[in-house]
Inverse folding.
DNA sequence: ATAGAAAGTGAGTACTTGCTATCTAACCTC
DNA sequence: GAGGTTAGATAGCAAGTACTCACTTTCTAT
């Protein structure tokens, strides 16, 4: 009874624990407060650690944000892969279904985090450079996922184009979807737009057997 | 020779002059520095006026930003209208041409300003509420422009969906286009994507005369 | 010309920011 | 255990923030 119940962690465990808490806290702050309001103090408060702890593991605020970016990038591509894995994409309905799931994935907090960092990087050359590797990795892996989905039916030219179309449309949607209720009035419009996209994708490669 | 050459402006002219300079300066700061770095000091330096002048005309920083938003919103819809006015949209090539012009318009500084404010509004309830009227006005006017372009050939259901598709795709493109050279390596991909979009739009209403 | 109002100035306010220096608590090696 | 190293807490700093206020300059009405 001399030691408190949850203790005797190894140094590496302690370290990993607070680093993880800081990354998660950064994600939370970014999604619900935005980039500018994600101060080191706010992140520390959310993570339940002191500022000194933060600056022990990350030399600068930007380092924390870059680490967070890499953290969510891998999670995002994993979510995409999960969403599309084994999905049928032969009919318009099936493709529309995939698109609906992709839309939900794009609207997720981790993806919102990624977007927030991308926007911030536009006006910050250092951050932009630091984010470049993660960006290229994510792009390549997204292309892999797309190839798994549509690779056998879309040409090498069309595949990245369709990917760009889908991803950019969903991202644009996420940016302009700042209304409290994401499934608000124009929801029907968005659904219809996604259906048109699905038609485009399916009709791009009409089924061999009519 | 007692008075300097360019003087004797009326008070209204002076007022309008500095307000205009402040709005333009805000646009410049937002596009090249981003929302967070658009401080009142930065705007005043860019506009060449003192902070006191700013706070005479705008009670708060947010008021300045909202005024800027309304300022650019009207300019943006005018640019869109100009871009599409009288354009032919019968063939895939013609629609692709329109989309290319729309893309350029979406990448313009004033549109970038609008986007910057939209993103900031996501994490700021007050700003979001203040931006709502301008947002709805812009949306309605964009729908008008789209109706002028495609109204006779797309159904009332499809029109807003196609508009959403095009605008969101272009916006998403603008967000992720933070590379120095916007017409960089994946430029071909984007062009191909826009062409696919054009095909979708044209094939949505096959010409009556085959 | 002169009084009064509006426009513009710039130093100053209270506060927040990222970050550091100093120190204590927890862990590892012996 | 002791000695040394790492992790974390706390107070504080310089720089920057939005905004204010006493003041001068510029226009307007008489």
């Amino acid at each position: 009874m001399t030691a408190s119940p949850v203790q005797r962690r190894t140094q590496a465990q302690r370290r990993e624990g607070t680093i993880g808490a800081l990354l998660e806290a950064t994600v939370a702050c970014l999604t619900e407060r935005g980039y500018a309001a994600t101060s080191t103090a706010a992140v520390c408060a959310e993570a339940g650690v002191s500022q000194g702890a933060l600056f022990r593991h990350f030399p600068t605020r930007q380092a924390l944000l870059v680490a967070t970016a890499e953290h969510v990038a891998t999670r995002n591509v994993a979510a995409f892969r999960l969403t599309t894995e084994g999905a049928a994409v032969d009919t318009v309905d099936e493709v529309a279904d995939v698109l609906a799931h992709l839309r939900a994935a794009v609207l997720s907090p981790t993806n919102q985090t990624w977007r927030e960092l991308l926007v911030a990087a536009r006006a910050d050359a250092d951050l932009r450079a630091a984010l470049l590797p993660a960006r290229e990795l994510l792009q390549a892996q997204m292309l892999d996922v797309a190839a798994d989905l549509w690779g056998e039916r879309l040409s090498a030219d069309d595949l990245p184009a369709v990917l760009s179309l889908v991803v950019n449309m969903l991202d644009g949607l996420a940016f302009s979807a700042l209304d409290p209720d994401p499934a608000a009035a124009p929801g029907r419009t968005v659904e219809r737009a996604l259906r048109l996209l699905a038609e485009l994708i399916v009709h791009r490669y009409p089924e061999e057997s009519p």
User: Anything to note?
Assistant: The domain at 1-58 of chain B is CATH 1.10.10.60 (Arc Repressor Mutant, subunit A). Chain B has nine helices and no strands.
